[in-house]
Specification:
Rossmann fold, 6-stranded parallel β-sheet, 11 strands, 11 helices, 36% helix, 351 residues, 3-stranded parallel β-sheet, binds nicotinamide-adenine-dinucleotide, alpha/beta
């Protein structure tokens, strides 16, 4: 399905041979919320702890982040040249929550840096279902709003399905609506959940081939685990999805060449569970004491895993940029009036 003629830059988004940028801030020097980050650690080279195991490649997000920023900036220029509006992202927060506020602050930094307007919109913690639905409809109808992200968690009186049902699919920059989730699983152009899409791009960036691999995804949420499993399958990995009620998590993980973990459980994936040389993509973000750590035992996996993303500094910096890119993509969708315009569809999958 060819893209419309006014999207000359879009095929770029499908190409993953991206430019490196040397201007990145070191992601480990960022401060997120109250937690400080191990700023002096050098993750730039493979780590060999001298135990005879494999050297572990550290898959940092920063090199990919630099090229994503360049891609986003040129796509914004293309969007505006084609008659689109300057992209504007609204983040909706109901009540207050430290992790949601920290995520919003990092979104704000990222958007500012790539030239996307970010508008925070706060609803009181007492907001009713009708309040949330009204806001989603108003934002959906506002031509000045390109993308909408509802920050989690919602207070208990607001069920998540309200967001699924009432968020405009054309502005659904984290790909959570039934339309985008369904289109993703059918291999149609869609706004893809930013965290798992960023994970795939990180693997591509480091040249990690997914075909013929046995992958295990720990976590089956609609925003991370489940779409990550879909994307891996589309890239020819053979995927097992694990969750809280998986009988033998360690046994499943031990068979995997690639482990993606998004459980929100610090130290869940240990060296004993990992096949030597396997790749570990850690999406977890956990505050432990004054530090942010992932779901994998990073230190313990050095010299066992073949490659691993650090937390912080691995998948995180890529997520916010994919969200920014999705906001620009939503601008193209608005211009073309359809999700068909956000990206190129997957090629037909041979048997
Ligand atoms: P969620 O709570 O919606 O889902 C967690 C999933 O993990 C569930 O399916 C659950 O069954 C599974 N799980 C939890 N504990 C488990 C255990 N002990 N064994 C096996 N399975 C277990 O969470 P989510 O929104 O998917 O987020 C997961 C993690 O990813 C969190 O730490 C979150 O902060 C982080 N996150 C990171 C990014 C990023 O950019 N890196 C983005 C979004 C979320």
């Amino acid at each position: 399905m060819p893209g419309p003629p006014f999207f000359p830059a879009l095929p770029l988004w499908w190409r993953l041979e991206l430019l490196y940028s040397k201007k990145d801030d070191h992601p480990l020097r960022h401060r997120i919320g109250v937690a400080t980050i191990d700023a002096d650690r050098d993750f730039s080279t493979p780590s060999d702890p001298g135990n005879g195991g494999p050297e572990t490649r550290i898959l940092r997000g920063a090199p990919l982040a630099g090229s994503l920023r360049a891609e986003i900036e040129s796509s914004i220029a293309t969007l505006i040249a084609a008659g689109g509006r300057p992209p504007r992202l609204v983040t909706v927060l109901v009540g207050s929550h430290p992790s949601a506020e920290a995520y919003r602050a990092s979104i704000d930094r990222t958007m500012r840096r790539v030239g996307i307007e970010h508008v925070p919109l706060d609803l009181p913690v007492t907001a009713s279902e009708a309040d949330l639905v009204r806001v989603l409809h108003e934002l959906g109808a506002d031509p000045g709003v390109t993308g909408i992200l509802v920050l989690m968690p919602l207070p208990p009186q607001l069920p998540l399905w309200l967001v699924f049902e009432h968020l405009s699919p054309l502005k659904d920059v984290d790909g959570i609506t039934p339309t985008n989730a369904g289109r993703l699983s059918l291999g149609l152009p869609s706004l893809r959940p930013s965290t798992p899409q960023g994970g795939i791009e990180l693997l591509d960036h480091y040249g990690i081939d997914l075909s013929w691999t046995r992958a295990v995804v720990i976590g089956r949420s609609n925003v991370v685990g489940r779409p990550f499993a879909t994307l891996l399958t589309q890239r020819d990995a053979t995927v097992t999805v694990c969750h809280r009620k998986t009988v033998d998590l360690a046994g499943e993980v031990r068979r995997a060449d690639l482990v993606g973990v998004a459980a929100g459980c610090a130290g869940l994936v240990t060296a004993e569970m990992i096949k030597a040389g396997a790749t570990v993509l850690d999406f977890g973000v956990n505050v432990v004491g004054d530090k942010i750590v992932g779901d994998a035992d990073f230190e313990g996996l050095l010299g066992v895993a073949g490659a691993i993303t650090p937390v912080p500094g691995g998948t995180g910096p890529v997520t916010a940029l994919v969200l920014a890119r999705n906001t620009v993509a939503a601008g193209f969708a608005a211009l073309g009036g359809s999700l068909d315009h956000v990206e190129l569809p997957l090629a037909a999958v041979p048997c």
